[in-house]
Amino acid sequence: MGPDLALQLMGELLWDAIFISAPVLIATLVIGLIVSILQVITQVQDMSLTFVPKLVAAVIALTFFGPWMLRKLALFSTGLISSIPSQF
After folding, report:
1. Interior CA angle at 17 toward 72 and 62, to 5°?
2. CA–CA distance, 78 with 86 (Å, rounded to integer)
3. Domain ranges in the chain?
4. With contact defined as beta carbons under 8 Å apart, do 61 and 23 qualify?
């Protein structure tokens, strides 16, 4: 296993990690932005007000995108494990 292969595998790992985590991060980002705008408009500055909607958004995103995330992760790991014999 050379440095080129290790860098290629690391690049695939990082891109897959970005794609797998993106739905949850985007959902919580959008909800957090909406709640922050509402806090600015209403001048209610309570930190616990942002936590619950973000938590609900993350659970909904995990419920909706969970099977896709698991398939993508399983596909990456099976491809990585099946390529082990050809690398050594």
Report:
1. 65
2. 14
3. 3-87
4. yes
Whats the size of the chain, residue-wise?
Answer: 88
Q: How far apart are CA 3 and CA 28, in angstroms?
A: 37
**How far apart are the C-alpha atoms of 37 and 70, rounded to whole Å?**
33
The tokens describing 8, both together, are 């290629």
Mean of all residue pLDDT scores within the chain: 90
pLDDT in tens, 2-44: 778 889 889 999 999 999 999 999 999 999 999 989 988 988 8
pTM for the whole structure: 0.80
